[in-house]
Amino acid sequence: MKNRGVVMNYYRGAFGGVISLDYMKKYSPVTLIIIAVNVIIFLISNVLGIHRDIISLGGMAPIEYIFQTNEYWRFLTSMFIHSSVMHLVFNMVILMHAGAYFEQKNKSKEFLQFYIFTGLFVSLCSGLFVDGISVGASGAIFALLGYILYYDLLARKRGYGSNSIILPLVVVNVIITLLIPQVSTVGHLSGLFIGYYIPLWLKK
Questions:
Q1: Sequence-ordered list of residues with C-beta below 8 angstroms from that of 116, at least 6 positions apart, any chain
Q2: N or C: which end of the chain has fewer CB within 10 A?
Q3: C-alpha span between 196 and 42 (Å, rounded)
Q4: Residue 3 gets which letter from DSSP?
Q5: Could you say which residues of the chain have pLDDT below 70?
Q6: At what angle do helices 185-203 and 138-157 cross, to 10 degrees?
Q7: Which active-site residues does the annotation give?
């Protein structure tokens, strides 16, 4: 495909955008960096045999505990830690599609700001409403899904066709979130909420 004066392979993402590696290196590098950081942390912690320690030290804890211990780094570090291979792979695949779409539609700086802000918001919600330790990038990822869902529904409302799978994907994931106890209901739903409503707030 010829795009922006550069010839490269074209692989369409699930929500739009392009997910070929060469294209993402140029036009969604932050997405690739975030994926790489998550994978590296998981691999190194498992190779060194400190994976459980990383979860214990870096996962999001109840807000009362954080205030008592001043371990405020947990708000950020919990976004880059995953509990299992399946947890990591599932999140990174969706992040590749959703992140590439968002970053290519907007700017890399805006994508990073959105990702960090929504991830911190979800960490806060988890700290307020979850008793145990919470880890994973799914809060920020669900915020991306909420953002994409908003614009997909807006396009459908205006009569435009859509090839995106965002609507059925969100429905399926919400059902899974509500049915499986191990899945963070607070993390997923608060992420979806903030991601969906950010475009509304920006329009005000």
A1: 76, 140
A2: C
A3: 29
A4: E
A5: 1-10, 204
A6: 50
A7: 138, 188
